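User: Small ask, check this?
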Amino acid sequence: MSTTTSALALLGVVLIGCERAPATDLAAPRSPAAVADVATADDDAFPGDEYPLSDGAAAAVGLADQGNGVDESVTGHYEYFGATTGNYFQYSVSAIRHGDGSVSGEVEERVTIGAPDGGLVRRTHGPVTCMTVVGNRARIAYHIEQYETTVQPPPGVDHGIITVVDNGEGANAIPDSAANNPGAVTPARAQLFCDVGFARPFREVEHGNIQVRP
């Protein structure tokens, strides 16, 4: 798939059901610890994404480092509070790349206001459509077959995207981290995300565990 500037301009970004982060946050320069999966240096963070408090594992990954391995898997449940939006994010993911290169699995997302039992912002659920594993991190896209929210996405804007980082197990491991789904994107944008990645801000996981097996 082409990653030229003209292709990116045609695809665009559609944001559904996300609160907009303050303009000062979006305009501030991002340190290497605040970005990952870099496709272009000027790819702005999506409004509604969460900026990291600290995450040394969220350093930029070059395109040349992306692997083409098979028999990979990403599993886990994770939660965190987003100080930028005031939302609470919960994700469950099971994604598998089989020996023939095909992928299977599901992603469940639940976003509420302020706390796990807060008012519903959105709930999405659907099968994994693509994934890329690079070391201890993974980019995953899924087709949104179930969407509960007050604002429905336009027709054809029906995929979610997430990034997760597995920082190991045990008491001495630093917390796992993740970049939340911006709401909904087109299938082409979702595939581009899997193929080459975007600059994404991360949050440390507060509850749960992510396991990435390359």
